[in-house]
Write a structure and sequence with these properties.
The complex is a heterodimer of chains A (about 90) and B (about 140).
Chain A (H helix, E strand, L loop, with lengths): L2 H19 L10 H5 L1 H12 L4 H9 L1 H22 L7
Helix pairs in contact in A: 3-4, 4-5
Chain B lengths: L7 H23 L8 H19 L1 H7 L2 H24 L15 H30 L2
Helix pairs in contact in B: 1-2, 2-3, 2-5, 4-5
Classes of the chains: A mainly alpha (about 90), B mainly alpha (about 140).
């Protein structure tokens, strides 16, 4: 048994737990994320994008570059599986 | 991959089910603007219809209609469509993926629709590709 790995994992978990103590409560209307950009999305997204689904408006428009990365991740996953598993050569 | 041993009941039910699953997948992609849904979810539903086809017809029969190359091209084409919309916005004089310069009455809505379709194509292609790779691995 390699106890070093266990110690590193435990320390990382402890750090993450300590970091999560400072997180705002779920649904707290006075927390930083709820007073910074959320009101803009809630009040203006329908007017600005003409899309009634606020989640889609944030995902595909305001955070469009992020979603491009997500699509690239899916693509990369498929290519990784292809490179590892597709060992047979294609017959012409 | 050998021909799947399936009963007549499984074959008939799968064949009848596939068009409805595909229509529902396309609906989820196209209707992501006004209800829960979008490219990722609709793409998974579309890919599941191809998996159902593989279950009832076998991998070889499905790959004769949708070739391995076609699936790989579709996987890349979705991401390229997405990135292409961004570059189109650049060419029209705005920031990358700023849809407000696209033509049409509601340009930002149109841009979102195009990228959702791109995401749907990529997710469908990726899942079908992974599924058939896992099945045909020896």
């Amino acid at each position: 048994m390699n106890y070093l790995h266990l110690v590193i994992t435990g320390l990382t978990g402890l750090l993450l737990f300590l970091g999560s103590v400072d997180m705002p409560n779920t649904g707290d209307p006075t927390s930083a994320p709820a007073v910074h950009v959320s009101p803009r999305y809630i009040e203006d997204s329908l007017e600005e994008t003409a899309v009634p689904n606020m989640v889609t408006a944030v995902l595909a428009d305001y955070r469009g570059f992020d979603t491009l990365g997500e699509a690239a991740v899916v693509f990369t996953g498929a290519m990784a599986v292809l490179l590892i598993l597709r060992t047979k050569r294609e017959e012409p | 991959m050998k021909e799947m041993a399936t009963s007549t009941i499984v074959r008939v039910v799968c064949r009848r089910l596939v068009p409805f699953v595909q229509i529902f997948g396309l609906y989820v992609i196209m209707h992501g603007h006004s209800s829960p849904g979008g490219g990722f979810q609709g793409g998974v539903i579309l890919a599941s219809s191809f998996m159902l086809l593989v279950l009832c017809d076998g991998l070889e029969a499905v790959q004769q209609k949708f070739s391995v190359a076609l699936v790989s091209v579709a996987t890349s084409a979705g991401v390229l469509l997405y990135a292409g919309v961004g570059i189109l916005c650049l060419l029209l004089g705005a920031n990358y993926l700023d849809y407000s310069v696209l033509p049409g009455a509601e340009p930002r809505s149109l841009g979102m629709l195009v990228i959702e379709v791109g995401v749907g194509i990529t997710v469908t292609g990726a899942l079908v590709s992974i599924f058939s790779d896992l099945l045909s691995f020896e």
